[in-house]
Amino acid sequence: MTTVVAGANGLVGSRIVARLLEAGEGVLASGRGPRRFDAGAAYVEVDLSVEPEKLARLIESAQPDGVINAAAMTDVDGCEKSPREAWALNVRAVEVAALACARTGARLTAVSTDYVFDGVKGSYTEDDPPNPRGVYARTKRSGEEAALILAADVAVCRVAVVYSGRPGAKKTFAATALESLRAGKPVKAFTDQVVSPTLADNAAEMVIGVHRSGAQGLFHCAGATEISRLDFCRALAGKLRADESLIVPVRVADLKLPAPRPLRCGLRVDKVRRLLGESVPLPIDAALDRFLAESRT
User: Which residues on neighbouring strands pair with residue 187, listed in sequence order?
Assistant: First the structure.
């Protein structure tokens, strides 16, 4: 088996590469800038914001069994400021990958986001209609449509609030909270945003599982616990035996952020549980244990 992994420098993409290599599979990885994950896979530097068509050429030359596209512009506020770059990465790159997969017969699995929902209902299933708000959300939803319409063999895996404790990993809300709590510094956390925090390695496990299964359509590959960011920090503080009074409750509206944030955006993971097994999507307690173990390596 050979798999092309786009976005291999990212939180989820780097773990997808690592897990495929551990399974003895052939991997051709691509990403923006120099390689930022452990060696072992062939790597091609591709800036999809400038030349998304290069990904199509890579797929067509490699003739892989499958393609996993984890590349994205995930800076929600940055997407508001640079909508053309957001479109190139979140829509155009998916389109060219889907068309290349259709031409070569490769299976495509595309990674998407909980932000395709407006956050009014909460506890979303794959059957709930998306209603994206903001440039990031709208481009990611357009990317989903590009994958589902243009690729012949395709799955879309939605993740949410991804975090990792691995050395060198991109700074996230969870990593910043961990660093602050360990240092005895205050942490601001939203009281009114309920999400499904997803450990990057667990997301990779689910994305690969869906990819290998051959199942088609939409899958929520998120953490198994829907929780507010405030309660997430409290759970983390409990694991660390840190002072909970360091956690400062704030509301999303208080920060006056450029891009809209869905407030109740938890994802139901029943479908991926049925496909991969009850224990695969990690509940918050187990996920935090793995997160802290990663941060100690």
Answer: 247
The verdict on pTM exceeding 0.90 is: yes
CA dist., res. 212 & res. 20, Å (int): 11
Q: What is the pLDDT of residues 121-132, one digit of tens each?
A: 999 999 999 999
| Residue 233 near residue 177 (C-beta atoms within 8 A) | yes
pLDDT in tens, 202-228: 999 999 999 999 999 999 999 999 999
| Domain assignments of the chain as residue spans, ordered by start | 2-163+198-223+265-281
Q: CA–CA separation, 19 vs 204, rounded Å? A: 8
Tell me how far CA of residue 165 lies from CA of 71, 95, 193, 198, 290, in angstroms: 20, 32, 22, 12, 8
The distance of Cα 28 from the centroid of its chain, to the nearest Å, equals 19
Comparing C-alpha atoms, which of 74, 77, 167, 123 is closest to residue 178?
167
Question: Can you tell me the distance from the alpha carbon of 270 to that of 272, in angstroms, rounded to the nearest whole number?
Answer: 6
User: Measured between alpha carbons, how far is 58 from 195 in angstroms, rounded to an integer?
Assistant: 35
Instruction: Tell me the pLDDT tens digit for each residue of 256-266.
Output: 899 999 999 99
Instruction: Report the C-alpha gap between 170 and 166 in whole angstroms.
Output: 9
Domain 2-163+198-223+265-281 has CATH 3.40.50.720: yes
- Catalytic residue numbers read 136
Q: Could you give the 3-state DSSP secondary structure of residue 28?
A: strand
